[in-house]
Amino acid sequence: MLPPAELSRRRLQLGLERFWSAQAYVASMSSVQDSTLAPLFSGEAEAYGAGMQIRVLGPVEVESGGVDIRLGGPKQRTILALLVVQVGKVVSVDALIDGLWGEDPTAGARSTLQTYVSNLRALLGDVIVREGGGYRLLADPAGVDAVRFEQAVVEATTLAGTRPAEAAQRLSAALALWRGHPYADVHGSFPLELEARRLEELRLGAIESRVEAELALGRHAELVPELGVLCSEFPFREEFCAQLMLALYRSGRQAEALRAFQKTRTALVEELGLDASERLRELEHRILNQDSSLLLETEPRVETLAFLLTDIEDSTALWETQTEAMRSAVAQHDRIVHDAVGAAGGRIVKRVGDGIDVAFAEVGAAVAAAKEIQGSLAASAWPGLDGLSVRTAIDVGEVGARAGDYFGPS
In this structure, is the dihedral angle defined by the CA atoms of residues 223, 229, 232 and 236, taken in order, positive or negative? Predict the structure, then answer.
């Protein structure tokens, strides 16, 4: 039997291989997707597209100079979306017409396309140029959330085997970019539907890889609720079932782990006429036999982490004199911290009084979260209170992970 560390490494590697397989498949099947994640762009993009943020992991949105831009009607948004998919590259007029009208373009499709492009240029500036029989979006690819998501996942793959905490943090931060279904408000374009499916598959692969990293860190108990939801939402995705079975078994819930297997097996047989994979059946067999190699080492894993702590000043006195206002203020403080931590890929460890203790794999992410928290706190109103003072601190050092908490020298 494989030792636990090697088992976790191989399971994580499998999740990453699935990521690459899905990427290669769609790149070969779809004419709209180039395999390059960060295409080169000319100096023109620096002049016109610098600072522009384009979001497609949800409804299509563009922000320039801190201002959200109204993009017009559905077809106009579709043209922009088709250019975003190949940001920095020329998209032919024929490809744009096909992506907008499919096999039944209107008689005046080319002139209508020119009108849409002109309208977009009026809204966005000269970031769309006519070139080589098509149009090119002159924007920094790093300003597109989908590109940043893919790059972050690729970077996390290099850390998976040796630095699971950092891999989990980077994957969590990448997944926090998602706001819903990709290109959610653009409908009826087959190339965009393919791209949306590709991105959704990458998202699921990233979730699997993040869960594998967290399982390697001993976070099995806290993963059980999330994996239960994922198995219900994706009943035929066996990797989620395998992860749930392992998390339950490591949490001392052998019977529930076996029930999770039977539930997935029944769904596969009844809905698809297929039995569970050999790998999933083997996992069931090992759980039935209480295979100890499925468990993690009992010794805590030692790793170097950054911790961010918040602490509301004079909270005891405020609770005594202004109870209702304090109740509202603490809830608002918690929301601000949760949002900033989620965006930076941190993990909330526990409450400490009226403060929160958060772990990060990188000190840079802890600093970014602290800056966001301080800015949001300063910009917030605190009804019933004469402001709210919150201390923040960051510490870095070696700790041992055990039972969802961390232990080490002060």
Answer: negative
From 298, 329, 364, the end of a domain falls on 298
Pairwise CA distance, residues 260 & 263, whole Å: 5
Are 324 and 399 found together in one domain?
A: yes
Angle between helices 238-250 and 4-29 (to 10 degrees): 160
Tokens 């603490």 correspond to what residue? 330
Q: Which two tokens stand for residue 213?
A: 């990293």
d(CA 338, CA 346): 9
Give the Cα separation of 60 and 65 in Å (integer): 17
Query: How many Cα atoms occupy the beta-carbon half-sphere of 167 within 13 Å?
Result: 27
Q: How far apart are CA 26 and CA 17, in angstroms?
A: 14
Element containing residue 136 per DSSP (H, E) = strand 134-137
CA distances from 288 to 106, 242, 269, 291, 294 (A): 63, 14, 21, 8, 12
Tell me the per-residue pLDDT of 256-272, one tens digit each, with 9 for 90 and over: 999 999 999 999 999 99
Higher pLDDT, 31 or 120: 120
Mean pLDDT of all residues belonging to the chain: 82
Q: In this predicted model, what pLDDT tens digit does every residue of 398-407 receive, in sequence order? A: 887 666 677 7
Strands, sheet with 67-68, edge to edge from the N-terminal-most edge strand: 53-55, 61-64, 67-68
Cα 330 from Cα 262, distance rounded (Å): 43
φ/ψ (deg, to 5) at 134? -160, -155
> Final residue of a domain: which of 193, 210, 227?
210
Give the structural domain span for 305: 301-407
Residue 366 DSSP code: H
pLDDT tens digits for range 79-116: 999 999 999 899 999 999 999 888 888 888 888 999 99
Q: 205 and 273, same structural domain?
A: no
- What is the residue whose two structure tokens read 């941190």? 346
How do 53-55 and 61-64 pair as beta strands?
A: antiparallel
The kind and range of the H/E element at 219 are none
- DSSP state at residue 268: I
Cα 339 from chain centroid? Answer: 13
